[in-house]
Amino acid sequence: MSPSLVLIMLSLASTAESLIGKPGCQTTCGGVTIPYPFGISAEGVNVNCSLPGFEISCANNHSGGLMPVLANTEIEVLSLSVMPRPEARVRLPVAWSCYNSTGGNTGFSYGTVELNPTGVYRISDTHNELVVLGCNTLMYTNSGPPGRYRYSFYTGCMTYCNDSGTAQDGKCAGIGCCHVDIPPGLTDNWMQFGSTTTWSHVDQEFSPCDYGFIVEKGYYTFRASDLTSMSVKQTMPLRLDWAIRARNIRSVSMSCAEAANSRAGGYACVSQHSECVNSTNGPGYFCNCTRGYEGNPYIVDGCTNINECERPAEYPCYGVCHDTEGSYDCKCRRGYQNSGSPKEKDCSPKFPLAAKLALGISLGISFLIVSLLFALMVRQKRKMNEYFKKNGGSILQKVENIKIFTKDELNKITKNNSEVLGQGGFGKVYKGILADNIMVAVKASIEVNDARKEDFTNEVIIQSQMIHTNIIKLLGCCLEVDVPMLVYEFAANGNLQDILHGDASRRVPLPLELRLDIAIESAEGLRYMHSSAKRTVRHGDVKPANILLDDDKFIPKISDFGTSKLLTVDKDFTMFVVGSMGYIDPVFHKTGHLTKKSDVYSFGVVLLELISRKPTIYGENLSLIIEFHRAYEQENSGRTMFDKEIAAEENIFTLEEIGKLAMECLKEKVEERPDMKEVAERLVMLRRARKHAYGQGNYIEEIGIEATPKSTSSSATLSAPSTPATKHISNP
Ligand SMILES: *[C@@H]1O[C@H](CO)[C@@H](O)[C@H](O)[C@H]1NC(C)=O
Ligand SMILES: *[C@@H]1O[C@H](CO)[C@@H](O)[C@H](O)[C@H]1NC(C)=O
Ligand SMILES: *[C@@H]1O[C@H](CO)[C@@H](O)[C@H](O)[C@H]1NC(C)=O
Ligand SMILES: *[C@@H]1O[C@H](CO)[C@@H](O)[C@H](O)[C@H]1NC(C)=O
Ligand SMILES: *[C@@H]1O[C@H](CO)[C@@H](O)[C@H](O)[C@H]1NC(C)=O
Ligand SMILES: *[C@@H]1O[C@H](CO)[C@@H](O)[C@H](O)[C@H]1NC(C)=O
Q1: Ligand 4 atom having least distance to the Cα of 165
Q2: Alpha-carbon distance 550 to 495, whole Å?
Q3: What are the contacts of 652-659 at 24+ separation with CB within 8 A?
Q4: Is-contact 472 557, C-beta < 8 A?
């Protein structure tokens, strides 16, 4: 070992020593550390090794060794401590008293130890208890300055046992053993006995002696054998509290405040980072190092910083620990964080903010977008398939003369619904152009649900089979949408409603021949519809707005029948009568029973409009039907009602005949109305008659028109009425 190392070690040792006791003073004895203010005074040392009253002697023990004792006593010191509590652990003798079989006392000891009441020691009330052993015994201690009696404290307990067999090991509850807490402030250890007259020990060989002692709590465990065999020289460990009670033995005791202010000096808490604490057991004070420091507050610089990081059990840190003067820092490791303090709970990993932003946001957003798009696509596709199925796609796929368009195809055809043709029964009607440049009209059908699916598919099939020049042709449909879209033949000249009653700007001259043609061909369309072999079809909403006109030849095309009527149909009857005001058959209105004759009625109104070019309600709330009725009733002629444009004399006969035919169509009694076949035929005859007349001069005689109904046609009923854009009237 190098000399320098020895030197360092020596200096370290002396530094350590100096933190325990005064320089040059002995700091241990018999293996017990003697910290200042305790000290063992020695010859030739020119400092006082202890504070007054704290003197310790190093004495011979009975087996040739050394043991510290309280100076000038035989009280063995087991340990002395300054921090965290001021304590002296010592051994004190037990008190005892023994008896012979006749109850005579054969010897006793009070175990007396009197600690100077102005001195530093008090028996610790918190760490000790009083124990009494015996079988008919009262023992108590007394202490403190005089009060009403000689002492201010009396405490003790009594114990009894019938025979030796009743006491139990480990049980100190009044049978052979009792124990009791003690009050603070006890300066004396000595036991008093109850009088032997009261507490007889006659015939008590099983327990010849009584014992009493104060002992450290938890140290003594009762054994029944102790009643007979405990040595009268037995000592018991107990704890003493100590404090600086007075400047010297004669002076009065003082508190922290008094000590610190004392002009005479002698304040014991001399170290930096030390504090004064008032004594809780007796007067005086003691010193403590402040928080974060340890050592000896009674020595200059005796309180030293605690390296808390080396004692994780006492000073927890879940992060990185860093000692500081009087305290310590504890931070989470890089990349970790903690919502509270890492001294209290674990840190958890964190993303650096930048990375979080960069990665999190970009990843999050792109993931979101991708998954959103994907979900949308999947959903769209699924929805389209659902709609296709719901709308009866699997059945309609097999129908020959219609085409099933995909949604995409339809969007292409209508250029995403860019051109609106008008308002249909259930929504807008869009113009579309097929691949081969054929114009079409695309419009919404009814909404199809499971209940209506069959009706819808049937209707589409029927419509697809309605192939007639005067019926608008259903070309196809698109089922991949919620409400199926139907693709129809396009009629370039709009509808008859607009042509007859539209803006003046759009009005075209309509000679009677043209009007007759329109009437005839519309009637043909309806006749064809009514004569359909497969199923009785009724239009349900005949009116000029539903008679479309093709290109420049004004070929009428009946439209808006079928699907739009399904909604309210329940076989033959409908809960709601739907149709258009002014055209609706009053019988249908009353009964909810839609027949072919209902269409005839409506067509009658169309005829009146054709010859008068007046809407159903005109002027000041005049009804076209009522006015015609009145004219025919009063004058047997509709002359006043005819459109001036065509009311030339040579036309009057034709007009009158059409008017009369219309009046028949409008008959209240269903069976008095002609059927569509008859209407069409009579109109055709009128046209032929005119041609003849122009060719032969007397067409009237030739055809000999008789305005009489020839037959009452059967009023089969099945198809349904419904809806166009006009008013819905509910059936009472
Ligand atoms: C030691 O204590 C005595 C009184 O107990 C005192 O008179 C003396 O001055 C002290 N000596 C030193 C070196 O403090
Ligand atoms: C006496 O002292 C020696 C050495 O310190 C120790 O080994 C021994 O146990 C002590 N005896 C008693 C009775 O305290
Ligand atoms: C018991 O002790 C008393 C007093 O000490 C004495 O007088 C008596 O003789 C003793 N009895 C016996 C049996 O020893
Ligand atoms: C008490 O002791 C007497 C005498 O030894 C004995 O006869 C009696 O049975 C004991 N009683 C109880 C309750 O142990
Ligand atoms: C100590 O006790 C005194 C009086 O009993 C009191 O004035 C003082 O505030 C106490 N000091 C402390 C630190 O508790
Ligand atoms: C002494 O100080 C320590 C640390 O500051 C503390 O834990 C302890 O309770 C104090 N002792 C007393 C008796 O106040």
Answers
A1: 14
A2: 9
A3: 653/700, 654/512, 654/516, 654/686, 654/689, 654/690, 655/512, 655/611, 657/682, 657/686, 657/705, 657/707, 658/516, 658/519, 658/607, 658/610, 658/611, 658/683, 658/686, 659/607, 659/608, 659/611, 659/628, 659/632
A4: yes
Residue 707 tokens, joined:
């305005």
Q: Read off the pLDDT of residues 457-498 as tens digits, 9 standing for 90 and up.
A: 777 777 788 888 899 888 888 887 777 888 888 888 888 988
**pTM reported for the whole predicted model:** 0.52
Domain with CATH 1.10.510.10 in the chain: 496-697
Which CATH code fits 496-697?
1.10.510.10
From the CA of 248, give the closest atom in ligand 1. 5
Model pLDDT for residues 406-419, shown as the tens digit of each residue:
888 888 888 888 88
Q: Which among 509, 715, 426, 690 is positioned nearest to 594, based on CA atoms?
A: 715
Q: Which amino acid appears at position 413 of this protein?
A: I
Q: Are 426 and 446 in contact (CB under 8 A)?
A: yes
Structure tokens that stand for 200 in this block: 């007889």
101 CB near ligand 3 (under 6 Å): yes
Contacts for 364 with CB less than 8 Å, ≥ 6 apart: none
| C-alpha 161 – ligand 4 centre gap (Å) | 10
Residues of the chain with pLDDT under 50: 1-14, 564, 566-571, 575, 696-732
Crossing angle (nearest 10°) for helices 649-665 and 624-635: 110
Q: How many residues does the chain have?
A: 732
Under DSSP, is residue 506 helix (H, G, I), strand (E, B) or coil? helix
Pocket of ligand 4 (CB under 6 A): 162-163
